[in-house]
Amino acid sequence: MSVVAEKPVLGTEIGRPVRRRVDFDVVRELVAPGSRILDVGCGDGALMALLEATHGVRASGIELSQGGVNEAVALGLSVIQGDADEDLSDYPDRAFDYVILSQTLQATRDPRAVLENLLRIGERCVVSFPNFGFWKMRLQLLAQGRMPRTGLLPDPWWATKNIHFCTIRDFVELCEEMGVEVERAIALNTWGQRIPFTAPWWFWNLFGEQAVFLLRR
User: Fold this and answer.
1) Structural domain boundaries of the chain?
2) Which residues contact 74 (CB under 8 A, 6 or more apart)?
3) Higher pLDDT, 185 or 162
């Protein structure tokens, strides 16, 4: 269900050269070795395979597209077909140490309800998303008067599966409203470099192309 473009980062953790997104290394840093994880919207299972190979996690996944499920299962991963908006309610409380929603939140119909389920199912959840407050987005809207397109969000407005864009500031305010604790937050610029932790939120919101949050309740 992940619906953003990949930036090429070469690796061999799953036994062959792979292309993985720059946020994968951040997610890997946030997840403890040997933990139980559920990857929601896991796509082809690349992140699950990476975490199994490097962290020895016990990984399960749920993916909307049959093609993604087939690719993940072909890698020997435990993935079922399901919808984040409809099927997360079937999972029991605290069934996993981490629930991961990587670049998928903006494609859900009810992001707040999905986030509530993530926090119920997992002891912690990791959420990454593209930042619609990124300066290139703002500039395209201002200069062209059209829906922005970037490397992370390459599709035209009529073809994208993304329906609920948000900014880093929007997401932080939602966490505050829900009473969610932000344990860690990392913003990445266009080149995948981390924006200094001490930078104010407005700076993250302007120069962070994407963000990764570690949350708990």
Assistant:
1) 10-216
2) none
3) 185
Q: pLDDT at position 18, please?
A: 43
Burial class (CB in 10 A: 0-12, 13-18, 19+), 202: exposed
Question: What is the pTM assigned to this prediction?
Answer: 0.87
For tokens 């407050």, the residue is 133
Around Cβ 123, how many Cβ atoms within 10 Å? Answer: 15
45-56 pLDDT, tens digit per residue, is 999 999 999 999
23-30 and 46-55 helices cross at what angle (nearest 10)?
40
166: left (phi over 0), alpha (psi -120 to 50) or beta: beta
**Rg value, the chain, Cα:** 16
The percent of the chain in helix, strand and coil, each rounded to the nearest 5, is 35, 25, 40
DSSP lists the bridge partners of residue 53 as none
Q: In this structure, what are the phi and psi dihedrals at residue 144, rounded to the nearest 5 degrees? A: -110, -20
Tell me what pLDDT residue 20 has: 59
CA atoms in the 13 A half-sphere facing the CB of 194: 10
The structural architecture, per CATH, of the domain 10-216 is: 3-Layer(aba) Sandwich (3.40)
